[in-house]
Amino acid sequence: MASPILDRELKKGSAELLILSLVEDRPRHGYDIGQLIELRSRGALRFNVASLYPLLYRLEKRGWIRGRWVEKAGQRRRRYYRLTPAGEKILAAQREGWREFVEAISRITGIQHA
Amino acid sequence: MPEFREAIKERLKGLSLAPAREAEIVEELSQHLEDQYEQSLNRGASEEEARQSVLQELNESDLLAPALKRIERNVPQNPVVLGTEGRTNMIGDLWQDLRYGLRMLMRNPGFTIVAVLALALGIGANSAIFSVVNTVLLRPLPYNNPDALVMVWDDQTHLGFPKDTPSPANFLDWREQNTVFAGMAAMTERSFNLTGAGEPERFDGQRVSANLFSLLGVEPQLGRAFTADEDKPGSRVVILSHRMWQRRFGGDATIVGRALNLNGEAYTVVGVMPRTFQFPTQRDDLWVPIAFSADEASQRGSHYLSVIARLKPGVTLLRARAEMSMIAARLEKQYPEQNMRVGSVVLPLHEEVVGNIRPALLVLLGAVGFVLLIACANVANLLLARAAARQKEISLRLALGASRTRLIRQFLTESLLLAGGGGVVGLLLSLAGLRILKGFIPDTISQVQAINIDAKVLSFTLLVSLATGLIFGLAPATHASNFNLNETLKEGGRDSGASVRGNRIRALLVMGEVAVSFVLLIGAGLLINSFLHLRTLDPGFRTDHLLTAKMELSELKYPDKERRLPFYNELLRRVSALPGVESAAVAGNLPFTYNGDSMAIAIEGHADLPPDQRLDVVYRAVGAGYFNTMGIKIVQGRDFNEQDKSDSVQAVVISEKTARHYWPGESAIGKRLKPGLTTSEGPWREVIGIVKDTRQNDFVAPPKMQMYFVHSQINYSAPNALVVRTSIDPLSLATSVRNAVWSIDKDQPVSNIRSMDEIVSAAVARQRFSTLLLGVFAGLALVLAAVGIYGVMSYSVAQRTREIGIRMALGAQRSDVLKLTITNSLKLVGTGLIIGLAAAFALTRVMASLLFGVSATDPITFATISLILMSVALLASYIPALRATKVDPMVALHYQ
Questions:
Q1: 8 Å CB contact of A54 and B25
Q2: Which of B28, B74, B81, B392 has the highest number of chain A CBs within 10 A, making it the mutation to test binding with A?
Q3: B32–A31: do the CB atoms touch at under 8 Å?
Q4: What does the alpha-carbon distance between residue B172 and residue B701 come to, in Å, rounded to a whole number?
Q5: Whole-structure pTM over 0.80, yes or no?
Q6: Which chain B residues have a beta carbon less than 8 Å from that of A69?
């Protein structure tokens, strides 16, 4: 794991893309999103409560995702976030930007795709 | 599970977020932490370790507050809970309340449907009755400046006629001498046989002063009104009703100027009245000029006119009365023989037209108001129960900063939404109800066909709905916003002081419902009693299996009794031969169809009484076998028979009352009397029979003195009806009877073929109308009250499940529980009943004028209704009580 500072900056840059990607196929609640990030990055990336939720709220405020309280039988209600049409466009643009960025870094550093 | 909310709240403290938003964030974040905590446990951490790791996560960075601060500022609010922290935005709040209210109502469709339906019944009944009141009582009569129209009557109170019809000579003097009326018109009923075109038919009509139509301010739709010139004997002009013009002449536009054969004479049609014209009722189809003959114009003793007048602008009713009294006093001095103690009465036309239906309508309006109150109480009860279920929501809102007034407003909005829904459905119900109602309103009541739902009714409905919403919404709203927040939160939403107060309101509502429905039921009970009493009164004859037909002989074709007799004899011969006919007779002015003509009589051997003490005796000209056919019991003597001819002993049959009055304590048979005075022309008539009194025109007035002549022996009155006693359904003979008439004279109209049962039943139409409606409304009230009692008892049983469980666990028997529950309910109902009793004693007095033969405080009615209401209340609380006995102590003790 890199230094906390790098970790923070990296996460900051990629976090929006991560969240948007995760709610692309279906609505998810915050804990679910946090778990998935940790799981799919095999523990390399982890958001704690204090950073995940402000992010979610910011994305919601920008209108890219939308949270909704959902009550399911036998469960307490949870807030599920889904991608909005505006969010879809942003996600596509960010994916493209991120791809170009990674390619550029690889070309410079010689790091190959895994 | 450790509690993380406080820790999160701690970190949000500095942000001063909107309470709603803060609550949301706290909920979301704490859930996340709890999930994490559980996961740690699952991975094998101890509880303490798990808690520490979670809290550490929260503490790991102090980023939460600053990060949120950047984002949450200006975050558009999306509150789920309402609370404006003192900021008020009326329109915005209202919109929010409406949307929220609608959502709440849609989420509980069962509740909403029941509430809306209860309200719709109440509001619908109100709208329907109000539209009748509006049309009949409130809307001005359809004449020009109707407030200035008055009716003028003779006042002969000393003879029992406080409103007697004036005589022609008096009318002419009034018209001549008064200075207060812009115009005065007289009219008198006259029926016409229309012949020569199609089936002969009889039409009701009026002889009227030529100025009647201009006095009313109504123009004929076609042609013109009468001219003053036409108000002279010998003029043969006629104005038709729109109805007759349409039905009989197919709305022929060239009808004006055509000649009609009426009563054997040619009349020229000069006009057709508009469809809406009616004066005073819809009965009339023809108008001809009254055209007094010189003989008529000098009559002061025969009273048969109706007189209408229009006040001059600026003249008050009081002044008109004063002047008319003066004129009457002058005429009394001038003509003491006829005008002794004859005064005058001036009454507004509106009063005349609606006066006798007003009390019934007002009582009905009051009744539907009561029904609505009960519906309100029921809905308020439902709302209270729901408010209890919503305590958690309410306390959350209060905790989040909603003000109490804001909550009250939200609750009221919901009530008003319900009331609005009830209003809309109610209006639809009233539309349907009116259609049914119109069938029951006696058509002698003015403007019945004009009853509709107009702007006034709509605004009335709107107002009632709003008021309703406020009434049933206020109690639950103030109650809901009033409970102790801390207590509720502490007790986790379980029973608290609030529900005790709620129970008290509920108890009050039940008492109120019981009291109000008791009053209604008493009202209905009294009317039903009175109606039954009316129907059990003996009319004096047998009404069943009796067919009647109106048959006015043309005066031209049958000018005297010599020409009438063969017709009657032949008719009776043919009708009696019909299968199913037991007997038949001709009659004049059948009971319940006509008020009766009357005259004073002189008694042989007695001096004439002074004019103001002469009592009138109602007389009829009837044919042989009349009493037998009508089923009028002959007390003494005999019926008329074929031997009573014009040249035999001049006979008279009198009623028991007449006999008692003139020959008290002795037999009247063989005694002699004559119409008018001892000095009058005409023979003395011998009493050959005494018959039972018969009712005259209704059941309410006691029978007057009566006497009967046989038509072959008098000239001044002729039979105008046929009565047939049958052994089969009388109406099945209608066609054969009509054909029997036409087989003798094809131009002779036969009208109003009805069974006597129908006639008698029509005579109580008004009473039936109010009885039926009040009965329906009282029934509705009873059902609503029963539902209310049931609801409250169910609720209280549900609330006391735990208590009941403990009692049963401690050894209480089912019967004890049953007794406990029912006693509780009966206490409420009993109190309500006592309140209702007091109210009913006070209120039923306003009904006194509608009652007949029953006192407004009739103890039997009061006792019966109390019993009925008690039993219904008992039943309504028995079912929940039974449920209470089924409580399983184990379940009850776990019950939250």
A1: no
A2: B28
A3: yes
A4: 31
A5: no
A6: 80
Tokens 């309504």 found at: B876
pLDDT tens, position by position, B725-756: 999 999 999 999 999 999 998 888 888 889 99
Nearest Cα to Cα of residue B29 among A40, A7, A51, A93:
A51
* CA B500 and chain centroid, separation: 41
**What is the 3-state composition of chain A as percent helix, strand, coil, each rounded to the nearest 5?**
60, 10, 25
Verify whether the Cβ–Cβ distance B63 to A54 is below 8 Å: yes
Cα separation values, B626 from B37, B638, B642, B698, Å: 106, 11, 11, 20
Instruction: Catalogue the long-range contacts made by B863-869 (C-beta closer than 8 Å, 24 or more residues apart).
Output: B864/B525, B865/B518, B865/B521, B865/B522, B865/B525, B866/B518, B866/B833, B866/B837, B868/B521, B868/B782, B869/B514, B869/B517, B869/B518, B869/B521, B869/B782, B869/B785, B869/B829, B869/B833, B869/B836
Query: Is A78 near chain B, with CB under 8 Å?
Result: yes
- Chain A CB contacts of B72 below 8 Å: 57
**In the A/B pair of chains, how many CB contacts fall below 8 A?**
60
> What confidence tier does B63 reach under pLDDT thresholds 50, 70, 90?
low
B881 contacts B822 by C-beta, under 8 angstroms: yes
**Nearest Cα to B587, choosing from B562, B623, B544, B560?**
B623
Q: Nearest-CA neighbor of B833 among B790, B867, B881, B861?
A: B867
Find the residue in A nearest to B55 (Cα). Answer: A49
d(CA B578, CA B737): 8
Nearest to A58 among B58, B61, B71 (CB): B71
Pairwise CA distance, residues B510 & B472, whole Å = 13
Provide CB contacts within 8 A for B798, sequence distance 6+. none
Q: How many CB atoms lie within 10 A of CB B634?
A: 14
Interface of A with B in 11-40 (CB under 8 A): 29-31, 34
Cβ neighbours of residue B739 closer than 8 Å, sequence gap 6 or more: none
Of the candidates B625, B577, B624, B588, which has an alpha carbon nearest to the alpha carbon of residue B721? Answer: B588
Residue scoring higher pLDDT (B317 or B788): B317
Count how many Cα atoms sit within 13 Å of the Cα of residue B837 in the half-sphere of its side chain.
17
Tokens of B582: 């037991």
**CA dihedral for B641, B645, B650, B655, sign (positive or negative):** positive
User: Given pLDDT bands bounded at 50, 70 and 90, which one contains residue B829?
Assistant: confident
**Packing angle, helices B765-799 and B756-763, rounded to 10:** 60
Write down the pLDDT at residue B892. 65
Q: Point out the residue among B63, B70, B76 whose CB comes nearest to the CB of A50.
A: B63
Cβ atoms B291, B207 nearer than 8 A: yes
* DSSP strands (E only) in B741-844: 751-755
Going by their DSSP bridges, the two strands B616-622 and B597-603 should be labelled as: antiparallel
Q: Is the pLDDT of residue B335 over 50?
A: yes
HSE of B287, CA atoms in CB hemisphere, 13 A: 29
How does strand B286-289 pair with strand B201-208?
A: parallel
Q: How many CB atoms lie within 10 A of CB B445?
A: 22
